[in-house]
Amino acid sequence: MTPPLTLIAAIAENGVIGKDNSLPWHLTSDLKRFRMLTMGKPMIMGRKNFQSIGRPLPGRETIVVTRDPGFTAEGVHVVYSIEAALARATERAKAMQAQEIILAGGAELYAAMIDQVDRMKITFVDLAPDGDTFFPAINWSQWEEENRERPPKADKDDATFSFVDYRRR
Questions:
Q1: CA-atom Rg of the chain in angstroms
Q2: pLDDT tens sequence across 107-153
Q3: 116: burial class by Cβ within 10 Å (0-12, 13-18, 19+)?
Q4: Which of 105, 113, 165, 160 is nearest to 133 (CA)?
């Protein structure tokens, strides 16, 4: 059985999720949440997203989806299709005894895989920054809100935000 696929994203009020291959804000609280939600699990991400991070994240297995047959990176699984990414993630989840697979972006993979996503863990950022990468349009009526938190803004957070968890209806 395939573990559920959980999309994790931080989205600004204007739909921006990135600018110049990086986040257009710094939210220490969100980075800590991302770490907690992804630790010990296989993560699927696109090549550009991986390159913006610059390295495999410790305690997780990264599966990088790319169309570039020459792309290599130490410490990650490189695949060339969404189907291969899901197959590898399912195999790694079983080996790791992980209860879910994480879809960590970016925008192209979110758009291509949204119909396969079972859950979403979204950080809604109270900013409207300039950006060049946007969260794809989705049909929100297909999603049911399960949990919403509005933690206090920490000293190292650029903005206030909400953590909202959804499951597919």
A1: 15
A2: 999 999 999 999 999 999 999 999 999 999 999 999 999 999 999 99
A3: middle
A4: 105
Domains and CATH numbers, the chain: 5-168 (3.40.430.10)
Q: How far apart are CA 37 and CA 140, in angstroms?
A: 22
Distances (CA, A) of 142 to 123, 145, 150, 168: 18, 10, 23, 6
Residue 92 DSSP symbol: H
- pTM value surpassing 0.85: yes
SS3 133: strand
For residue 132, the surrounding DSSP H or E stretch is: none
